[in-house]
Every structure is written in C-alpha cells, then in structure tokens.
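Board notes, transcribed. Complex of a protein with glutathione.
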Amino acid sequence: MLDKRIVLHTAFLLLLPLLVAVLGLSVWAALLLVLLMLFWRWGIVLSGLLRPATGPKMVLETISASHYVEKVRWCMDRLGVEYEELPWCGTLGAFYLGRTVPRLHFRTGAVRSQIGNSPEILRYLWGAYGASLGEAAAFLEPTAERLEFEGRIDRCGVSLQVWIYYHLLDAPRLCKHAWGVDSEAIPAWQRRLVGVLFPLQAFMIRKSFRVNETRYRQSCERIEALLAETEAKLADGRCSILGGEQINYTDLAFAAIQGAWLQPAGYGGAAGIRIERGRTPVAMQRDIERWVEDYPRVTRFIEDLYEAERDGT
Ligand SMILES: N[C@@H](CCC(=O)N[C@@H](CS)C(=O)NCC(=O)O)C(=O)O
C-alpha cells in the first residue's frame, strides 16, 4: 500500500537535480530546496502523528492469481473478519517495490502495521483473534505438526510457481491475464504498464525462478511427492489431511496452493482470477490431467473443500 503523500514527495525528490540543472540554480538555492524537501518530509511525519491513520481496519494486498494470496484470503474469509482487498497487477510489487503478496496492513494503536509472508500473516490472525473468536478461530491454531506440514506445502508452492511459469511464459496473453491485465479491479496504469513491460517481466521471472527444463522436471517431482504423500494419507477416509474430523488451516493451505493447478470452481473466492483449463497450453493440460488421474483422492478433497467452503458451484 503506497502512501500518496510519500509517493509525491519521492517524485519531487527525484526531480530536484533536473530542476537545478534546468533553472541553473546556485548552490545556495539548491541548498534551500534540500531544506524545503526535509521540512516537507517532516510535515508528513507530524501530520501522521496528529491525524492517525484512518481507513479500513485490515487491508490485504493481493495479485489476481496467487496461491499464497488464496491461502490467506480463504483463512480470513473463514474467520469472518472484515477486510478490504487491494489488488495489484502481478510482478510489479516484487520487481519494483521489493515486496511479496499476500501482505496484510492493519491498525495497531495510532499507527498502521504490515506483515508479508503467508505463514506469518496466519500467525498474526491467530494471535489477534484466537482468544476473542474462540471456536471460530480454532482452525488457525498452529501445532508443531501443522507448522511442519505448512512449511512443506509452502515450499511446494514455489515448485508450482516454476511449473506455472514454465508453461505460461510462452503464452503471453494468458500469462498477462493471470497477472490481472483484464481485471477492472486493478488500476488501469498498472495493467497498461504490465502489458508494455511483459518481455522484461517475463525475463526477470525466468531468471529469478530459474525456469528451464531441468527445474521444471525437478518441480514436477516435488509436487508429485507431496501429492502422493497426501493421497496415501487420505486413503482412510479422514476429513483433515493430518487426521481428525475438523478442518484446520493446513487443509485450506493445501487446497489453496494445490488449487493453482486444479483451479476448482470457486478458486479465489469472489476476488481472484481462475485460469480455465481449456485455455492453458496443451502440455500444461497434460500435466493437470495426469495429476487428476494419479491423485483422485487429492483431487476430490480439494474440489469438495472448495464446494463446501468457497461456494464452488
Ligand atoms: N513465501 C511467500 C511467497 C509469496 C509469493 O511468492 N507471492 C508472489 C505471488 S504468488 C508474489 O508476491 N509475487 C510478486 C508480485 O507478483 O508482485 C508467502 O507465503 O507469502
């Protein structure tokens, strides 16, 4: 979430050398400008103290198609807390602001705070609502076993990112769609920027995820290892992957992260983007169909959970 006052101040700051050069200002005039900029920045700090941040209590920064976002969004929806979603176009935040999504902004006393990284956000929600919401928040309770499983689900999420980009970077139209260029909820300037910058964004994604044939194969193996392990666990008809009758956050995390390839009805709740299987490249469809066939219990588990919880009809 960008503070407009700071964005404006930074823009002016960047333009200062240009201003000095164009107007041919003296050293003293340039020094005066520097002092003015410092006072302006101080004014922003003071106004923040005098007029504490307002706005919604919680804001979740997101991108349209993200399995990590979906994990947090689903937990927040299930918890029943009020929040607003602030959608960005994919890749802009990572490469130009150095932040990942999901990112949760919330009020803490007179100031606003923020957390990135889905596991930490869930720990915050548990800490903030575990006691006050009681039974309704019980699914968020972290145990050693759940934390360990969540860690493996999240690592598999990275393998899924490699798998997705291996298939989608060569399908620019669909890739841009996944990044949100067709989503009216996202500011038009971001959608246009991502449209224009696509070759650069694709290059940076390819480099940062090291998307190549070897990594693709490794990623498939890692994804399939978790799918096979979960398939075996579900064989006894349990309701929750780690056992027991009650769903907990690891079930939602598993379904949200693995939902990236299955794309069940209701994926993303009301806010995300679904990538219909029929639109994906043939090789991607082949992988998906193989996984559906090889892991039928996992497939049913994810689809049933979505139908029950995300109104996936
Ligand atoms: N470990 C992080 C991973 C988050 C992540 O990789 N998010 C991707 C989207 S799936 C992201 O922020 N991409 C940056 C962007 O698109 O701006 C988490 O669990 O939240």
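The mean pLDDT is 94. The chain is about 60% helix and 5% strand.
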